[in-house]
Amino acid sequence: MSRTSAFVRGMVQGIPIGLGYLSVSFGFGILAVRAGLSVTEASMISLTNLTSAGQAAGVDVIAAHGSLLEMALVQLTINIRYALMALSLSQKLDNSFTLPHRLLAAYGITDEIFAVCIAEDGKIRPSFMYGITLIAMIGWVLGTFLGAAAGQLLPASVTAALGIVLYGMFIAIIVPPSRKSGSILCVVLTAAVLSCVCKYLLPMLSSGFAVILCAVAASVMGAVLFPREEDDT
Amino acid sequence: MSIAIYIAVMAGVTYCIRVTPFAFFRKKITSKFLRSLLYYIPYAVLSAMTFPAIFYSTGNVLTSLIGTAAALLLAFLELPLIVVALAASLATWLAGLLIH
User: Which of A1, A17, A93, A214 has a CA-to-CA distance to A38 between 20 and 30 Å?
Assistant: First the structure.
């Protein structure tokens, strides 16, 4: 496939992500302004971080005048899952992914972009990742800007309903492979059950840390019970 | 302390987490266990992030459940991502209108 068509296909795949980000980051923009940040600062955070949970926690640290060490540790704990995703994705890159491309494309490793890349058949080209990342980034930054500048103008029923968009997308990503593969279904159900256990029985665990714990435990179980024979990802 | 410094630390740490394994790990992983682990991780991460958080995603458990059911059904029918995502939101919104 040509570079241009990979880029365009990436942008198309990025549309649901961009729409979802637009609604989620709208809420982040409102939250950031409430914490005392300017519209520009809120938008800059979204542009340079491109992550939801980490940014929300970061704004809390800023509002509380926390130390820079605390800021670094909070980001590390919440975002360490990206290291797992980056490692997983590094196995799926095609030969045109040279070091400069890797340095640039790494910016776009988010839960959703990662999920779309993993769902692709075959190897990933840099232009494909750039296409998704561009649309997702525009949605994320634009939503933050709009939320920060003009929040609370939308009716509450609409903002409430928009809250489910990203999760709906996650479901659309995990359900079809779970239908086809009993081992994926087993891992997905285990992770969901563990996550509910963490939420209701271990409420002191932060949500970022709980996700790491549940995902690693469910994946280790999957790797032990259903090891994969050869590389057909 | 200047907010710009906070933002720089946030962005720097987050980028390092992403780029280190992505750019500087070039070997093919040969361990069957590790390969299997990495294969399952994305599904496990998304599942753990979705449940139970989706039940609270709209601020109302009942409308969230209706949206979740719509998403599960349409995803089971293998409709495109954006259709599933927006239909879940639409179902939630309609449910909210009926309830109030």
Answer: A17
